[in-house]
Design a protein that fits this description.
- This protein has 159 residues and is mostly helical.
- The protein contains four helices and no strands.
- 58% of the residues lie in helices and 0% in strands.
- The mean pLDDT is 79.
Length: 159
């Protein structure tokens, strides 16, 4: 058997084995992708750092689910498009929240490292000082009873 024949046989075997393999999983729907994005963000406690963005992501996910249900029931002709748009917005909000949380964590770690290296002063707790506290201002004495009355300033209001 020649080298060319062997190459063709091997190529044929590879092609047949590729066709015989299990079918790949179907692609995720936008709603499934949004659900996963929000779940991943929740698992990493992103909401601790980017609460508003996570709230927006959850709201968009609910709107995507509602629109998807309407699309399946045929109640709204634009429901499929709305479901996809809301799902995309939920994904974007979850990714934004994740990025903000990562940034906050990196900044906190950077600040802690700078404090350890002495590049940033470590805040000292306030210590009680035995100094006298400032006394509140004394009220002004009332004018004598026989003093003439002073006119009130004109504020331009009704008379």
């Amino acid at each position: 058997m020649s080298t060319e024949s062997r190459v063709l046989v091997v190529a044929g075997v590879v092609l047949l084995s590729a066709c015989a393999s299990r079918p790949s999983k179907p692609p995720l729907t936008p709603l499934q992708e949004a659900t996963l994005a929000v779940a991943r963000a929740d698992e990493t406690r992103v909401g601790d750092f980017a609460y508003e963005d996570m709230r927006n992501a959850r709201e968009r996910l609910v709107e995507a689910r509602d629109a998807s249900i309407k699309a399946q029931q045929g109640k709204d002709s634009l429901a499929t498009l709305n479901a996809r748009q809301f799902a995309d917005e939920a994904i974007a909000d979850a990714e934004l929240a994740t990025a903000k949380a990562q940034l906050a964590r990196v900044r906190a770690a950077s600040f802690a490292l700078q404090q350890q290296l002495g590049l940033v002063p470590v805040p000292q707790p306030e210590v009680f000082s035995p100094e006298e506290p400032e006394s509140p201002p004394m009220p002004q004495p009332a004018p004598p009873a026989d003093a003439p009355l002073q006119p009130l300033p004109d504020t331009g209001g009704p008379a």
